[in-house]
Design brief:
Layout: E1 6-11, H1 15-24, E2 33-38, H2 41-50, E3 55-59, H3 68-77, E4 82-87, H4 92-100, E5 105-108, H5 116-147, E6 151-156, E7 161-164, H6 166-172, H7 176-179, H8 190-205, E8 210-217, E9 223-234, E10 239-248, H9 250-260, H10 264-268, H11 270-277, E11 283-288, E12 293-296, H12 298-304, H13 308-311, H14 316-319, E13 321-324, H15 334-341, E14 345-346, E15 351-354, E16 360-371, E17 377-386, H16 388-402, H17 412-429, E18 432-440, H18 443-450, H19 452-468, E19 475-480, E20 483-491, H20 494-507, E21 512-514, E22 517-519, E23 523-530, H21 537-553, E24 558-561, H22 566-586, E25 589-598, E26 604-615, E27 619-621, H23 623-633, H24 636-656, E28 664-667, H25 670-674, H26 678-689, E29 696-701, H27 702-707, H28 709-722, E30 725-731, H29 738-743, E31 748-751, H30 753-756, H31 763-778, E32 782-786, H32 791-799, E33 804-806, H33 816-825
Parallel strand pairs: 1-2, 1-3, 3-4, 4-5, 23-24, 26-28, 28-29, 29-30, 30-31, 31-32, 32-33
Antiparallel strand pairs: 6-7, 6-10, 8-9, 9-10, 11-12, 11-17, 13-15, 14-16, 15-16, 16-17, 18-20, 18-23, 19-20, 21-22, 25-26, 25-33, 26-27
Helix pairs in contact: 2-3, 18-19, 21-22, 22-23, 24-26
Length: about 850
């Protein structure tokens, strides 16, 4: 059969031209044409509205329409037809314009002949068919591409993007407009970029296929793991570009990371595991219908101890030996149940796999029937994995939930449970229960001066001594920080608890040897006894804690039994602590200043800043009442920082006012001095207030400096480098080494008031004071005697050539206003009788 004739609509008003064209197309070539002629645009539009034509030969000069508008109206109603414009030689410009707007081509009237016209139309028809086929092919490609879960990135020979599909947009987080003209490597995670581009460059240079895995970093910082495959587009002579397929493997990667720690061997066999197990890292063992082993993967080989070759054909019970972890009896085979019941079954809980070498592994598994093509059961597949680590972790977590991670001792939760049990048992047996609450004295100083690593070792050493000092039936618990609790179950009398406390104090008399450090740590111990000191867990614990704080108040390194009146003290301590916190926020602290007098001239050479708390209910509270509480609750550091800043600020104000200002001394506590950043804090306060450092003197006690003499030397030298003056306060009460005293850059020694008080009646005190004055003179250090209250004391100090004095004989601590008046008067020589 011949092909159907090509339907041609000739739109031509010129009869001569129309006859010529019709004659040219009347031949009997390979393609036959059926030509219908109309002479106006209106007729053409009517015919095109009712019938489909393959080719339209359109004259743009008609009786009812002329120019490019003629083409546009025809094209609007027949966009799929092949439109050839018939143009006069003088109007080719309009014909070309029609081609630009959608016409297939144009012919010049007067140049049409019977041989050339049919061939030209056949060529245009074939070209149109090829173009339609290409568009259809592209449409099919785009539909297939957009339906694919794989991302597709097509680049030209220079590497610029010319096409991406919807999956690629989702994976990369980039739109088509964002990818067009860019390179595929744009979205690679920065941490993967160097590796991937190196691999890419090597593959491109060799025109080899490329495959790798890396992360895409989307604009919202989301990470998508991908596998990329790339191949070249080449016609054998030239490279036209490359195609990259991008697979989202985020979920598989997540599964791999979870299993990585326990299943490294699985990753060595990743490709095989993907094919057989769809990327899960479990052991796989298959059996036939008779229950004989037909397959093991590498993980199964390792877990059972049987190689694939050795296990093949052996009974499942021989290769896969499982027992109940509780009864130690053989467990039922899940594979047999799966075959018999024709369904997926799970292994009983707490099952153990006995490996070929006898090692036991805790496992979890499931078994499913394998069917043949007829749907009949042909065997079973077992999927199992080692859960030994996870079960061990569960046990470890259960232990950690009730034990302290640092010392391994029971924690507060376990103590509370055991105390409740002990109270219940003691109640039934008419016994008593002792609770010993203890705290390591000044432990914070060790942490601040030597660091938490040393502090942790001290806690471990303390835990070992506590455990060794009690019975196996008793419980030693770490309450938290440096607090420990001992539960003494079923004691006969409170004296039993006292004996334990004395044993503990004796055990802690010896130093703890931590590295190169020899650390002395004492205990403050509080004791409560059930039922005398409480009939429930909370009250017994609270009262032992209260007794411990009373032991601290009694000088530490002792034990105290709970007494009801201690609660009153505890309430007062809590009242003071909350009051101190309020005082810091609301500015209730004030500084008073006590002059320091040159004993030879009577002039005021300095002053000591002394903090007072102006409580709205208690009135003026002296440091002796609130400083110990501030040290215990950690408020001494912010209070000390306030004192230092306020003293510097006020001194700067006096200088700005033109007063004759003297250096001001500020006491520094041990906690402040050991605080990290203390040196920088002093420098910052001096800078903030604008005070010349020579107007500031810092007073530190001997015990502070000697706790860690090497560290103290470093800090003191830093302060000295700033220009700050340094004094040792309460000198003579500590245990200074003369060698260190020479090394410390000290300006002033302050003789403690306890020696000055009795110098006129106690020969020993007089000798000590004289020795300190002489030592200060030899070391070229200024010596100040504190607590000078009588003229006899003053005369003695003058006779020994003591430099300065401070005490009530000269002046009580003065308020800010009174001290400013003193500075304003200028002449303070009368403060010291000559």
């Amino acid at each position: 059969m011949s092909d159907p004739a090509t339907q041609v609509l000739l739109v031509e008003s010129d009869t001569a031209d129309a006859v010529l064209i019709q004659a040219s197309l009347a031949g009997t070539g390979e393609t036959s044409f059926c030509v219908e002629r109309v002479t106006s645009l209106a007729s053409a539009l009517a015919r095109l509205g009712s019938e489909r034509f393959d080719v339209i030969l359109l004259d743009l000069t008609l009786s009812d329409s002329q120019g490019i508008g003629t083409f546009e109206q025809v094209f609007a109603v027949a966009p799929q037809a092949l439109i050839v414009v018939l143009s006069l030689a003088s109007d080719e410009q309009t014909a070309r314009q029609a081609v630009q707007r959608g016409a297939s081509d144009y012919l010049v009237k007067g140049h049409v002949d019977g041989h050339w016209l049919p061939r030209a139309l056949r060529y245009l028809i074939e070209r149109q068919a090829a173009h339609d086929e290409l568009r259809g092919s592209e449409a099919r490609f785009r539909a297939i591409s957009d339906a694919s879960p794989l991302g597709i990135f097509v680049s030209d020979a220079q590497g610029g993007c010319i096409y991406t599909n919807a999956a690629y947009h989702k994976i990369s987080g980039l739109s088509f407009d964002e990818t067009l003209g860019t390179r595929w490597s744009r979205a690679i995670h920065p941490d993967d970029r160097q590796r991937v581009l190196a691999e890419w460059g090597e593959a491109v240079r060799g025109l080899a296929p490329f495959q790798t895995e890396f992360r895409f970093l989307q604009s919202d910082q989301s990470i998508v793991w991908t596998r990329v495959n790339s191949g070249a587009m080449s016609d054998g002579r030239a490279l036209h570009g490359r195609v990259e397929t991008v697979e989202d493997i985020t979920e598989r990667k997540a599964a791999e990371f979870v299993l990585q720690a326990a299943e490294d061997r699985l990753f060595e066999e990743r490709e095989r595991a993907q094919v057989t197990l769809n990327s899960i890292g479990d052991a796989v063992l298959c059996t036939d219908l008779a229950g004989n082993v037909s397959y093991l993967n590498l993980v199964a080989e390792a877990m059972t101890g049987w190689s694939y070759k050795e296990a093949l054909g052996r009974p499942l019970a021989e290769v896969f030996r499982i027992i109940d972890g509780n009864t130690r009896e053989p467990a039922a085979s899940p594979a047999e149940r799966a075959i018999r019941q024709n369904r997926t079954v799970g292994l009983a809980a707490d099952c153990l796999l006995i490996r070929r070498d006898g090692l036991e592994l805790a496992i979890e598994d499931s078994a499913a029937p394998i069917h043949n093509r007829d749907g009949r059961v042909a065997g079973a597949v077992l999927v199992f994995h080692d859960v030994s680590e996870s079960r061990a972790m569960v046990l470890k977590m259960a232990h950690l939930a009730q034990h302290d991670f640092l010392t391994g001792l029971p924690n507060r939760a376990l103590l509370t449970e055991r105390l409740a049990q002990a109270i219940g048992l003691a109640q039934r047996r008419h016994k008593q229960v002792g609770l010993v609450f203890l705290d390591l004295d000044y432990f914070k100083n060790i942490n601040d001066s030597l660091g938490h690593a040393i502090g942790d070792q001290v806690l471990q050493s303390a835990a070992a001594r506590l455990t060794a000092a009690v019975r196996a039936s008793d419980t030693v618990c770490r309450q938290g920080g440096d607090e420990f609790v001992l539960l003494l179950a079923e004691i006969e009398q409170p004296l039993d608890a006292a004996l334990v406390a004395e044993k503990l104090l004796e055990a802690f008399a010896a130093p703890h040897l931590i590295g190169k450090h020899e650390l002395h740590v004492t205990l403050s111990i509080g004791i409560s006894v059930y039922p005398a000191d409480g009939n429930n867990v909370d009250s017994v614990l609270q009262n032992a804690d209260t007794a411990m704080y009373h032991a601290k108040a009694c000088g530490r390194n002792n034990y105290q039994f709970f007494r009801p009146d201690m609660n009153t003290r505890a309430v007062r301590r809590q009242f003071l602590e909350s009051g101190l916190r309020r005082a810091l926020k609301q500015g209730e602290f004030r500084l008073h200043y006590q002059p320091q007098i040159d004993l030879a001239s009577g002039a005021m050479n300095g002053a000591e800043a002394l903090v007072r708390w102006l409580d709205p209910e208690l009135g003026v509270v002296c440091p002796e009442q609130f400083v110990p509480v501030a040290e215990e609750c950690g408020l001494i550091v912010p209070i000390g920082r306030w004192v230092l800043r306020e003293a510097c600020r006020q001194t700067r104000c006096w200088l700005d006012a033109g007063l004759r200002v003297v250096p001001v001394a500020v006491n520094i506590s041990a906690v402040e001095f050991r605080q990290k950043g203390f040196l920088q804090g002093v420098a910052m306060i001096l800078e903030e207030t604008g005070l010349d450092p020579r107007y500031l003197e810092l007073e530190l006690t001997e015990s502070i400096l000697m706790q860690n003499a090497e560290c103290s030397t470093s800090v003191l030298e830093g302060l000295k480098a700033m220009g700050v003056q340094l004094a040792i306060d309460d000198f003579g009460t500590g245990y200074s080494s003369l060698s260190y005293l020479q090394r410390f850059p000290i300006d002033t020694l302050k003789i403690d008031r306890s020696f000055v008080r009795d110098i006129t009646i106690d020969a020993d005190d007089a000798t000590i004071v004289s020795a300190v004055i002489g030592m200060g003179r030899n070391l070229k250090q200024r010596v100040i005697a504190e607590g000078v209250e009588t003229r006899e004391q003053l005369a003695f100090l003058r006779s020994r050539q003591c430099d300065e004095g401070q005490g009530f004989l000269f002046s009580h601590p003065l308020s800010l206003a009174d001290f400013a008046d003193l500075l304003a008067r200028g002449d303070v020589a009368g403060m010291c009788a000559r």
